[in-house]
Design a protein that fits this description.
- By secondary structure, this protein is mainly alpha-helical.
- It has 2 domains: about 35-55 and about 200-325, Cytochrome Bc1 Complex, Chain D, domain 2 (Orthogonal Bundle), CATH 1.10.760; about 60-195 and about 335-350, Cytochrome Bc1 Complex, Chain D, domain 2 (Orthogonal Bundle).
- It is built from 14 helices and 2 strands.
- It has a two-stranded antiparallel ribbon.
- Helix 2 (about 60-75) packs across helix 8 (about 185-195).
- It is globular and about 65 Å long.
- The termini are far apart.
- The model is unreliable at about 1-35 (pLDDT under 50).
Length: about 350
């Protein structure tokens, strides 16, 4: 079979609270028993891999980069008119995604695609729905310069704002060295922050051998998810995010206005091809698909059955799959909005002039 739920996630860095190293995966399960007593075929589980928590570092350079990256992620001064920031479209209380079908950027500009979650995004095969950037280090600057998002007119404009803020001059120099107060190093700092955004879940405890980390209904959903072919694309550590696939693999996708990766490569084979999203935290990241056209997870699963597999899933099958998808909801990063460095004498003029 081809795949299920190719677009059941909204994409797309925030990191866990430094006050505690513990990762909350829900209530403590009973002592695990031998894997061979479980009803799930071990061969199926080999298609996945448990997600580890973000490593805790004591390296002062890494700490400095994450700190300034966190601040930049929340700083609206990096947008035209000082209206938007990265967190505008990646809400921490909504699974790191945007609850709107498409995001609204500076001066009310409306985007054309749903903002995918930033959680776990650093480990995807590529960034954005069309995979136009290879990693978060290259991705982080895109929204800042996109006229429908943060709408800065160029790297030089971003650099001027950064250099007008004494705190950023000090922090970027500490993090990266002399002569690094610029757009490029600001995006590297944001990427360093995004690389801390990992969300281990009950699913990972199950993969590690805690058999009762999943309920019977969730295991039923997992087996169905595998039996009908979803694991052909939604697999690995992120349960997706590792390949591209055509939207409407069996039945043509209803909305053909966005041609996906074709707009990057201009190859006919890439028409309606999008990155397969990770299904981690999918229960929190509605609306679904690249256009944010479906607000209900059950309906999204139903559509994947029809358009990607050519099958009609019944209500009981959908209920079981949705139950298992809930086990992918991980410990959400707890981030207090940071206190941002104060304006310098010229900052306000640079921000309001745009």
């Amino acid at each position: 079979m081809r795949l299920l739920c190719t677009y059941i996630a909204a994409l797309a860095a925030c990191h866990r609270s430094e006050a505690s190293d513990a990762v909350d995966l829900g209530p403590a399960p009973a002592a695990s028993s031998s894997r061979k007593t479980d009803s799930i075929n071990p061969r199926l589980l080999r298609r996945f891999r448990a997600l580890e928590p973000a490593p805790v570092t004591t390296d002062p350079v890494s700490i400095a980069r994450v700190k300034v990256g966190t601040e930049l992620f929340f700083d609206r001064r990096l947008s035209a008119g000082g209206e938007t920031s990265c967190d505008t479209c990646h809400a921490f209380d909504r699974g790191g995604a945007d609850p709107r079908p498409t995001s609204v950027g500076s001066r009310g500009a409306k985007g054309t695609r749903n903002a995918p979650t930033v959680f776990n995004a650093a480990w995807h095969v590529a960034q954005f729905w069309d995979g136009r950037e290879p990693d978060v280090e290259h991705q982080a600057g895109g929204p800042i310069l996109n006229p429908k998002e943060m709408a800065m007119r160029g790297p030089e404009e971003v650099t001027a704002v950064l250099r007008s803020i004494p705190g950023y001059v000090d922090e970027l120099t500490t993090a990266f060295g002399p002569e690094t107060v610029d757009f490029t190093h600001a995006t590297l700092a944001i990427a360093a922050f995004e690389r801390t955004l990992r969300t281990p879940a009950r699913w990972d405890a199950y993969l590690a051998g805690t058999l009762d980390a999943l309920t019977a209904k969730e295991k039923e959903g997992l087996k169905l998810f595998a039996d009908i072919g979803c694991v052909q694309c939604h697999t690995g550590e992120l349960v997706g995010g590792s390949m591209f696939q055509k939207a409407g693999a069996i039945t043509p996708w209803p909305n053909q206005s966005d041609q996906g990766r074709f707009e990057v490569t201009h190859l006919d084979a890439d028409r309606m091809v999008f990155k397969v999203p990770s299904l981690r935290n999918v229960a929190l990241t509605a609306p679904y698909f690249h256009d944010g056209s479906v607000s209900n997870l059950s309906e999204a699963v139903r559509m994947m059955g029809r358009y990607q597999l050519g099958i009609q899933l019944d209500d009981g099958e959908i209920e079981a799959i949705v139950a298992w998808l809930g086990s992918l909801t991980g410990a959400q990063p707890v981030i207090a909005r940071p206190k941002l460095p104060a304006d310098g004498p010229d900052t306000a003029g640079l921000v309001t002039a745009r």
